[in-house]
Write a structure and sequence with these properties.
Dehydroquinate synthase-like, alpha domain; homodimer; about 50% helix; Rossmann fold; 7-stranded mixed sheet
Chain lengths: ~350, ~350
């Protein structure tokens, strides 16, 4: 079992990573102090893991709440339902809300825990690689609004995160690959040695080797925690975590909602960020080739929809006017060293978009 | 203008108290940094103050949101409506939510501000004495659930509180008196000198003398801030703020919901707490007479419904079993010195209840 402590003074918490943790009663004893537990999960995860997880909670009073699966249920209405469940079951302030599932479940359940009696205990048991490397750190919880994603929410730190790498065996391969894209992101923005490690251990990750997964999850969480902590001193450093996101957003929108997974779009977007960094003289041709090769080996799609540079610019939230003011993008000074910069010639961005979103001949 | 700074490190904020502040543009310039302001108010306060307040906001982009009046609208649904208004008006993270009204508006608007984009600026402009002395300090925001009061909420500190004492001119007299009961509470639990000051200045308070009101509000906020701050070291000290509440709850419930104002019930409950403290030998007969005289001069009702001691006990959440374990009550060691104690003989409580809830002959 790998173990990482997120240091936030009195709100600090452990991240426990390894195979079989979900059914390990002694792990749950460390993670959950409460006698009452509301387990929030969904209709896909519940048949797979709810029983085993409940058994690991032993003689606690456990109430399960099984929500429908999908991002479209990440709404304030669903949170109201979680709060109703807490009230109806007469859970007092000592309750712990446990999120068993992916990022949607974690965001929803965490926000409900933040609001119930102005904040009760919350434990994450993420069952997707994306949630294990992304949602475990940063304290962001919340829901979508018809007017925008994650517009409603709260910062609420979990009391513990338990990442059971065995749960990735039931994760669709495509989602596993999208999670690997996020792992690669941490290497690209912050740690060249970790990037090298990923290159050397990619088969282990995709083959669900428990040791490789645990190391990748641990190091990803560590890097995210460092960047989030530094953000309080160096304002804006947290934006590094958005490597590939602005490009990726254009891909997701161009392809139509739900066609690309978020992690897939970020993966292809990271290649574009590498390409633009090369055009600025920050990366070598060989660096970009290295990024492309790694993403390809991970089985990630790289061909953006052929919509042309002008439309791609628009989908990135830019037009000629904004372009002159230059929107800030996450780029790379070197592989393993991200930088947030608005300081690039507009033509370099247009050329990058032309190369990747170019209309096919 | 009186000025008090609530010291919470980076989350500290000023409380500005005095006549005419609501329409003072320079006061609003200090309180509100944002260019966009969503003013949350209700159908009773809006016709009285919305226009003047909006004028004081000068060239900011101001959007008003007028909610129906009443505690029964203090729900998650209403908060969802406030969030919708923020999204529909495309307010970004730099918006300020201003609560113009009493405690219900402050709790609702503050919770919406806590949840919008994980927390935006929030300014309180309380227009009732109760809100000016109670809701201004402590950071509690939230709404009711059919299963209980204030079950859903967040801690979210305001950026500033602007208490315009002139708004009390339009407050129903009965609500003013209920607010005075809360002011007396601060004297009784924490400051004998302030208690003496209230006795000497009660006519000024009830006569809406601006200087007397400003001092009473300022000192009440100061005392609440001290108690809330001490609570982090001395756990449970915050419970002192509940002087009269457990007795008061029995009164409110016995009389039927809405018959007694909360402050009125707390007032009569404080007299019962004084009486029980006397039976424990902590207060003199003359102390209790002094409390009674002050509450009577304030025009507060003191005659609890004649339901008998047994039912009163039940309404306090006690039965014979709990009584043996003795629920903790806020009592007074001396006038001006509250104490939270479960260490009293059960008979003393029963006698107190018999004296106040006794069935009339």
């Amino acid at each position: 079992m790998e173990r990482l402590r997120i240091d936030l003074g009195p709100r600090g918490y452990p991240i426990l990573i390894g195979p079989g943790l979900l059914e390990a009663a002694e792990v749950m004893d460390e993670a959950i102090a409460a006698r009452d537990v509301l387990v929030v999960t969904n209709s896909v995860v519940a048949p797979l893991y709810l029983e085993r997880f409940t058994r690991a909670l032993r003689d606690r009073r456990v109430a399960p709440l099984i929500l429908p699966d999908g991002e479209r249920f990440k709404t304030l209405d669903t949170v109201a339902g979680v709060l109703d469940a807490l009230v109806e079951r007469r859970m007092n302030r000592d309750v712990c809300v446990a999120a068993l599932g992916g990022g949607v479940i974690g965001d929803l359940a965490g926000f409900a825990a933040a609001c119930y009696q102005r904040g009760v205990d919350f434990v994450q048991v993420p069952t997707t690689l994306l949630a294990q490397v992304d949602s475990s750190v940063g304290g962001k919880t919340g829901v979508n609004h018809p007017g925008g994603k994650n517009l409603i929410g709260a910062f609420h730190q979990p009391r513990a995160v338990v990442s059971d790498t065995d749960t990735l065996r039931t994760l669709p391969r495509r989602e596993l690959r999208a999670g690997v894209a996020e792992v690669i992101k941490y290497g690209l923005v912050a740690d060249p040695a970790f990037l090298g490690w990923i290159e050397a251990n990619l088969e282990g990750l995709l083959g669900l080797d428990a040791g490789a997964l645990a190391h990748a999850i641990r190091r990803s969480c560590e890097i995210k925690a460092e960047i989030v902590a530094e953000d309080e001193r160096e304002h804006g450093r947290r934006a590094l975590l958005n490597l590939g996101h602005t490009f990726g957003h254009a891909i997701e929108t161009a392809a139509g909602y739900g066609e690309w997974l978020h992690g897939e779009a970020v993966g292809a977007g990271m290649l574009m960020a590498a390409d633009l960094s090369r055009r600025l003289g920050w990366l070598e041709d060989s660096d970009v080739a290295r990024v492309r090769a790694l993403l390809q080996r991970a089985g990630l799609p790289l061909a953006a929809p052929p919509i042309g540079a002008v439309q791609a610019l628009e989908l990135m939230g830019m037009d000629k006017k904004v372009l002159a003011g230059r929107i800030r993008l996450v780029l790379m000074r070197r592989l393993g060293s991200g930088v947030v910069s608005g300081d690039y010639p507009p033509e370099a961005l247009v050329e990058t978009l032309r190369a990747h979103f170019g209309v096919t001949k």
